[in-house]
Amino acid sequence: MGEILKNSSAFCLILTGMSGAGKTVALKNLEDFGFNCIDNLPVGLLDKFIELFMQSNQGERIALGIDSRNIQELDQLEEHLLFWEEEAQIRFRIVFLDARDEVLIQRFKETRRAHPLAKGGRIEAGIALERKKLAFLREKADILIDTSKLLTRDLRQQLFSIFMEDKAYKNLQVSLVSFGFKYGIPEDLDLLFDVRFLPNPFYDSELRSHTGLEKGIQDFVMQDGKAEIFLQKLNDMLRFLIPLYIAEGKNQLVIGIACTGGKHRSVTICEKLYQSIKDLENIGLSLDHRDINK
């Protein structure tokens, strides 16, 4: 088998990760991008499948979905991957999709699905067991994507950037969150900036019902120049910090921008900040206006 594979130009992507983290959605997107996708292939058939595929599909790309449904065979997977690297010289990458435990639990509850490893018990127990079984794949992953804050379209865009635009990806998802202090502070923030020092459209009856997504509100917030100075300093700081976070191995950075109600000032600054750092390489970037409709 080794000689056959050494002469192949095919590329294999292993898509794995936690149940509920978005693997099914990711496979569908990869199929749209031209990958030949196979989900839940038994580990014992991997070598034979790869051999047959690479004999007949030179230059093609395949994506194999492997997860805890193969739990009895996962221990063998490490041996297969070692052989691929050292003997068969197969070109492959591992993408691991993850999410915070509380997010995974909520997703299972919303869809009323049973966790594959819960065995009729609590979802939390299934997640804990799955993390243990998949730990070696997470450690070995070339690309780690945390989907806790990602919408379906955000995940698709990240995959498109990596595999279609061939952009470098260093496993850092930056989430910008605007919110109002009156509705509570999100628990997952890494950095928090209070912008209540800026002009407040709330006190203008004609502007009160509008939001920071609109130019009129943005112009009002930015009117005295202080917001521009603040944004420039924040932009400089993030451009300094983000490469350091990447080097340290951080995979998610949640930045909160807060005002009183989360509708005008924080939304404006979040929108402006998104535009100022969207050109940064090696990150995924998402935007969430939590309280804009309250």
Automatic annotation (TrEMBL):
Per UniProt, the keywords (alphabetical) are: ATP-binding, GTP-binding, Nucleotide-binding
Q: What is the lineage of its organism?
A: Bacteria, Bacillati, Bacillota, Clostridia, Lachnospirales
Q: Which SUPFAM superfamilies match?
A: P-loop containing nucleoside triphosphate hydrolases (SSF52540)
> Which amino acid positions bind ATP, per UniProt?
17-24
Which residue numbers delimit the RapZ C-terminal domain?
A: 173-292
- Name of this protein: Uncharacterized protein
Which parts of the sequence bind GTP?
Answer: 67-70
The UniProt record lists the RapZ-like N-terminal domain at 13-165
Q: Respond yes or no to whether keyword Acyltransferase is given for this record.
A: no
Alphabetical list of InterPro entries matching this protein: P-loop_NTPase, RapZ-like, RapZ-like_N, RapZ_C
Provide any one GO MF term from the record.
ATP binding
